[in-house]
Predict the structure.
Amino acid sequence: MGVGHARDRDPVIAAEDAVARALSAGGDPRLLLAFVSAEYDLLALAIALEHAAPGVPLVGCTTAGELTPAGPAHDALVVVALGGPGFTVSTTEIAHAGRDLRAAGVEAAAALGDVADCPHRLLLLLSDGLAGDQVELVRGAYSIAGAGVPLVGACAGDSLRMQSTGQLHGGRALTGAVVAAAIGSNAPFGVGVGHGWRVGGEPLHVTGATGAEVLTLDGRPALDVYLERSRAPADAHVDPDAFARFAHDRPLGLRRHAGEAQVRLVIGADFERRALRTVAEIPQGGLAWLMQCDPDSAGAAGFAACAEAIAGLHGGRPLGLVAFGSAARPTMEPDRFPVAAHLPGVPLAGFYGYGEFARARGVTGFHNHALAVLAVG
């Protein structure tokens, strides 16, 4: 695994620089991952990346911040090169995935058939988190992959504008899509995840909800209740953009029968209907909480996610770590993750987005405000 990053605003120069750095580790590159600031011209960058590494499959997406070997950034291109003997890859894209996210998950996971003979397999998903309930994407992928294939990845970002994200596949730039890489290897993969959030205050009864939209809480318009309980500033009451910026690190949470609470990112609001838009379903009839977090618990969760991923290598030393984090984490744990998790001599890269995919066991695989980590063995 090799990592390169660049900050030049010219997409050609940035692509050539980042790819050259990523490939400088040598070996036989079989897959490039590109995590791209939303400030770049995505099509120009996709073409430049393809020219910089001809013949090497590429998947990627726009971000709400990048994680470089030097630490968090907000204006960079990060390229990860994976490959070597015993490493096989099949990539795919599903355009307009929001029309049926479960079907998109099925189609993405079908690429695993191309690496069926490998002893260790992994499905990496990069999706548009603004396109609907991402739990459906995981359900579709799980129906094909089953419990034996880990899932990892994240939803793209757009620098917290919450308007439109982009995906990359080869030399193409997409939006509203899912891109996936089915990876087979002779060596194991490890996946870990953690968030560090806890429920706070009195629960809210979800009295009206449909899909990824919450209509009423405690029998009142959901937006009104959320603004009151979160003590939102005046501009968040009237300006959708201000609301999105305020809400991105004030999620709702669901408590399950066992384990830690599941977190749901609030990505926007319908000011006319007074409803909340979330990145995944909050079931009607259940309870929700406003979630709380602090730098210590966020940092501890990030460290635990890395430890869990590395443990999945069964004693082997990772060739590299790829991290997929919530857009809120840079403010919750500034600079802590790179210090806590980075092993000397082990490449580290990733990005911040609008939801994380991580499932090494069980059926739960979509997370919010978490850190998902892939350890490459």
